[in-house]
């Protein structure tokens, strides 16, 4: 059995334990920037593979699920303790991405709340010592925007998550970018830097998506440094503005329109709730049986952090159309945000 530990600011430690080398390689490729030496101070202890060590614990929550061609069993213990245990065993090509996106990262969000920090689902681009946050769901241009800004020489902090302190500091959350076949059209210079094997994989994924009529839409995970070799990542910056990206049925980009802090916080929490939907489903019996649990007050705690962090920040909404040329869309958003 082998393990790797990762420490996320401001001090939340995730430990991945597995006998399978590909599991450790996957998470190291994602969270390598946070790797730390082994420590006893672990807040999230995740065992991947058939274990059975905690399933018989008195407070264990066992949940079975399947999605598309992947099935799994996940077990939780000590959800209200400083140290939470997770065991996960699954079958299917998307096993590890599902574990990461729908269980580990929502759990990290809960652990960060205990440290008075929020994990925000959005992209963060820096200009000097200040950052602009772009909050939105999937396929609204966050990754393309991040890549285009890195290509321009601006520093970035991540395309999908950023950690926010109550004082309004954005903290980088670098992990591999999820790219899709449309990268060839939106950012051709970046696409040409990809290894031939990766470009071939993207082409095969495009064919698979077409044949399945959109049912299968896998992403390719690529480190930012491979796409933009001289990219800069700013560990911390002061949040200057927040742009909430919302899809709409029109043909043009609309905005920016000034919105209230309350609306902004609601949008941020809405996206966080969507990302945590599978975790919420899994632990619902525990939350229902334990009304005193800190999990029931997590949303209030998060709103408090966000209100303090963004109380003096300009907040806007941008309506984003579905278009073929996402690259042009990212350039327009950059101009609106004062990054062009």
Keywords:
340 residues, alpha+beta, Rossmann fold, 2 domains, 5-stranded mixed barrel, 11 helices, 17 strands, 36% helix, 30% strand
Tell me about this structure:
- The longest helix is centred in the N-terminal third of the chain and has 19 residues, at 95-113.
- The strands form three sheets. Strands 3-1-2-4-7-6-5 form a seven-stranded mixed sheet, with helices on one face. A five-stranded mixed β-barrel has the order 8-9-15-12-11, surrounded by four helices.
- It has 340 residues and is an alpha+beta fold.
- The chain is built from eleven helices and 17 strands.
- The model has no long low-confidence stretch (mean pLDDT 90).
- Helix 3 (142-152) crosses helix 11 (326-336) and helix 8 (261-275) crosses helix 10.
- Helices cover 36% and strands 30% of the residues.
CATH topology title of the largest domain:
Rossmann fold
CATH class of the largest domain reads Alpha Beta
Q: DSSP helix count?
A: 11
The amount of helix comes to 25-40%
At CATH's second level, what is the architecture of the largest domain? 3-Layer(aba) Sandwich
> Termini, distance in Å?
49 Å
Describe the largest sheet.
7 strands, mixed
Strand content: 25-35%
Rough outline: globular
Strand line-up of the largest beta sheet: 3-1-2-4-7-6-5
Whole-number total of structural domains: 2
Strand element count:
17
**Structural class of the helix and strand makeup?**
alpha+beta
From the alpha-carbon coordinates, what is the Rg to the nearest angstrom? 20 Å
Element pattern in H and E: EEHEEEEEHEEHEEEEHHHEHEEHHHEH
Report the average pLDDT across residues: 90
Stretches with pLDDT under 50, minimum 5 residues: none
């Amino acid at each position: 059995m082998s393990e790797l530990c990762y420490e996320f600011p401001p001090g939340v430690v995730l430990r991945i334990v597995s006998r399978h080398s590909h599991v450790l390689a996957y998470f190291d490729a994602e969270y390598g920037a946070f790797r730390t030496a082994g420590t006893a101070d672990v807040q999230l202890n995740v065992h991947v593979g058939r274990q059975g060590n905690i399933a018989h614990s008195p407070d264990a929550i066992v949940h079975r699920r399947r999605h598309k061609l992947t099935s799994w069993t996940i077990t939780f213990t000590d959800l209200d303790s400083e140290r939470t245990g997770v065991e996960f065993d699954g079958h299917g090509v998307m096993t590890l991405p599902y574990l990461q996106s729908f269980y580990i990262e929502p759990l990290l969000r809960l652990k960060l709340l205990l440290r008075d920090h929020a994990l925000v689902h959005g992209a963060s681009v820096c200009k000097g010592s200040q950052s602009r946050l772009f909050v939105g769901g999937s396929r609204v241009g966050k990754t393309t925007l991040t890549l285009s800004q890195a290509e321009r020489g601006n520093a970035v902090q991540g395309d999908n998550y950023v950690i926010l302190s109550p004082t309004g500091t954005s903290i980088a959350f670098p992990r591999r970018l999820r790219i899709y076949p449309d990268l060839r059209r939106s950012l051709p210079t970046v696409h040409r830097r990809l290894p031939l094997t990766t470009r071939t994989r993207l082409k095969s994924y495009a064919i698979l998506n077409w044949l399945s009529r959109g049912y299968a839409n896998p992403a390719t995970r690529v480190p930012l440094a491979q796409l933009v070799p001289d990219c800069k990542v700013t560990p911390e910056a002061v949040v200057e503005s927040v742009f909430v990206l919302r899809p709409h049925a029109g043909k043009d980009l609309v905005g920016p329109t000034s919105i209230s802090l309350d609306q902004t916080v609601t949008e941020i929490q809405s996206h966080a709730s969507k990302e945590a939907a599978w975790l919420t489903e899994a632990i619902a019996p525990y939350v229902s049986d334990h009304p005193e649990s800190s999990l029931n007050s997590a949303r209030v705690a998060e709103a408090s952090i966000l209100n303090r962090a963004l109380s003096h920040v300009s907040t806007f909404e941008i309506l984003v159309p579905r278009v073929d040329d996402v690259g042009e869309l990212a350039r327009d958003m950059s101009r609106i945000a004062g990054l062009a």
